[in-house]
Amino acid sequence: MAARENNFVSVVIYIYNDADIIQGELEGIHELLSEKFVKYELICVNDDSTDESLKQIRDFAAKVNDCPVSLINMGYYHGMEAAMKAGVDLSIGDFVFEFDRIPVDFDLSLMTDIFEKALSGYDIVNARPRNMRGRKSMLFYRIFNLFSISGQKLGTEYFRLLSRRTINRVDAIGQTVFYRKAVYSSCGLKMANIFYENRMLPSRKSNSKQRKNRRNMAMDSLVLFTDLAYKISFVFCILMALFMLGTGAYTVAVYFGQKRPVEGWAPLMGMISAGFFGVFGIQTIIIKYLELILSLVFKKQKYLISSIEKLK
Amino acid sequence: MVYDRIIIGGGIYGLYAALQCGSRGERVVVLEYEDAAFQRATFINQARVHMGYHYPRSFSTAAKSAAYFERFCRDYSFCLLKTFDQIYAISASFSWTSAEQFQKFCHSAGIRCERVEPEKFFKPNLCEGAFLTKEYTFDAAMLRDYFLHEIGQTDSVSVIYHARIQELRKENDCYRMTLADGSNLESAFVLNTTYASVNQILAKLNYEPFKAKYELCEIILCRADEKLKNVGITVMDGPFFSIMPFGRTGYHSLTSVTFTPHMTNYDSVPTFPCQQASRGTCSPQQLGNCNTCPASPPSAWSYMSGLAHKYLRSEYGFQYRKSLYSMKPVLMDSEIDDSRPTVIRTFSVNPTFISVLSGKVNTIYDLDEVLFHGGEGE
């Protein structure tokens, strides 16, 4: 057996109505940790599960005695992002494994690979499954990556490793993180992806709460982390302004031209197009302002460096 | 032998009571299980002279603590370490109290609380507020020497070490006990100050036990780096940690809410699996000394230090020296609300039998009332 790692690792696991599989998965994770690491802790974040999940976690904790197991119970359903943030906040490890869901679709030895990858110089290491399904999420990532501000590409993933440095950095950027993946990818530290052949898990039916949460998050992240919405509205406003300008010109042409459709049409039309031109013109400026404010609020830090080297 | 008072337990409560009674000329005997005084909880704790900062949710306790603090500092100033900055910080997440609430509470309780920049001590955004406070730490060894010296001056107080109570019974007008060495003691007033063993003594008389749970606790002594040397840090109010000077020993004590307790037991007398491995030194009927026990648990150093390092800036470093273990009874909520750390119970009057259980060293003054005004029935 290889020497065990001395780094303290925390494992944060999101749990929502997973009673049937919790014990087995936690045992597997715990076993790997005990083989691989000297110091570790498990943090289960129970997002107000409505099934027996809580009992299953307690039963598991009662069985292990060489590993601290913490449990965070969310006060009500928060969704994965906020719940995982709470778990990561509680963790004390030098490195933190995030399990965004407990059904594990990979061989747990992947944890070792990821850890080694991180030691080779990456602050964030994502595990990405190769076989994807779910057209909606694929569409989301395609749009997101196309317009992403940071340039890092996101993908479907449920499992990653963060260095303590990353967590400190993200904390320094701002407390209201509602889409961790995007923040991690744009926090300026080095990130790596490891792809793996995933087992296809039986698909689980998500309930309306989860679906709604996911939908809102997708929309919000597109607005915050990409310039998609800004670009659309900005371009649209300019187009409308130009269109109104065109209409104005046409009206002027008609006014001085031969054909008069209806008495009074041209002045009225002129007024309307001038008015709307003003509205869209101002709106273009407002959108620009909003974008500026958003970036000021959201990127509190002036810059995000990934390292400083003294070369001489 | 007939005594005016028999005091069971040579911790600070026992010796304080002995000295108070002895200085009035009463004949007092203190029975100590160990071979020296102050070997367990009085020595093995954070050595904090509490000012009340720990009760941001209970104003009355805070006010009371503040009064006791002043008195304790007057009476025992020789054993205090005062020359360090005691910082209380409020964690940004998981705290039950906000920085604003804490500050407001300190102001209304009239205790010192000056805002300092959290970033001076902590990594960014981990603490939402940090405060310079007034709190001291006492040196248990110096305090013990003082008490033993003063007791020696009185002539009327004796301390029996290595005392093994074999029999304890109530008679018409007195309590009678027999020790393992065959000596018989008798007194109309018995004070039980045995802390974690309190229910074990009560069980000998079939008195109703205190409703307490037991925690096997570890305190880590560290050597602090230069920057931390004259600083004490406590992060509140939830699952956090404290690292502060340990009396005048030159060490810092490191404790954490989640990792200091290793095992918990809810029986009326402390019952732990490690007792089987204690080579007969410890049982549910007679607690041994966790600190010298061959079955003490492995240190939680990596967890406690990990937690502290997560918060503290890297220049506030510290290194492991040794671990101290002790058993801590924690009164259950039904028995005690957060606002009263000392519980004194009178089980019998004439002859009088009183038990005291308190988690704080500087609340010894709670004893005055029962020592000299007699115990009151509940």
Automatic annotation (TrEMBL), chain A:
<keyword id="KW-0472">Membrane</keyword>
<dbReference type="InterPro" id="IPR050256">
    <property type="entry name" value="Glycosyltransferase_2"/>
</dbReference>
<dbReference type="GO" id="GO:0016757">
    <property type="term" value="F:glycosyltransferase activity"/>
</dbReference>
<dbReference type="InterPro" id="IPR029044">
    <property type="entry name" value="Nucleotide-diphossugar_trans"/>
</dbReference>
<dbReference type="InterPro" id="IPR001173">
    <property type="entry name" value="Glyco_trans_2-like"/>
</dbReference>
<keyword id="KW-0328">Glycosyltransferase</keyword>
<keyword id="KW-0808">Transferase</keyword>
<protein>
    <submittedName>
        <fullName>Putative glycosyltransferase</fullName>
        <ecNumber>2.4.-.-</ecNumber>
    </submittedName>
</protein>
<dbReference type="GO" id="GO:0005886">
    <property type="term" value="C:plasma membrane"/>
</dbReference>
<feature type="transmembrane region" description="Helical">
    <location>
        <begin position="265"/>
        <end position="290"/>
    </location>
</feature>
<keyword id="KW-1133">Transmembrane helix</keyword>
<keyword id="KW-0812">Transmembrane</keyword>
<feature type="transmembrane region" description="Helical">
    <location>
        <begin position="222"/>
        <end position="245"/>
    </location>
</feature>
<dbReference type="Pfam" id="PF00535">
    <property type="entry name" value="Glycos_transf_2"/>
</dbReference>
<feature type="domain" description="Glycosyltransferase 2-like">
    <location>
        <begin position="10"/>
        <end position="100"/>
    </location>
</feature>
TrEMBL record, chain B:
<dbReference type="Pfam" id="PF01266">
    <property type="entry name" value="DAO"/>
</dbReference>
<dbReference type="InterPro" id="IPR006076">
    <property type="entry name" value="FAD-dep_OxRdtase"/>
</dbReference>
<feature type="domain" description="FAD dependent oxidoreductase">
    <location>
        <begin position="6"/>
        <end position="205"/>
    </location>
</feature>
<protein>
    <submittedName>
        <fullName>FAD dependent oxidoreductase</fullName>
    </submittedName>
</protein>
<dbReference type="InterPro" id="IPR036188">
    <property type="entry name" value="FAD/NAD-bd_sf"/>
</dbReference>
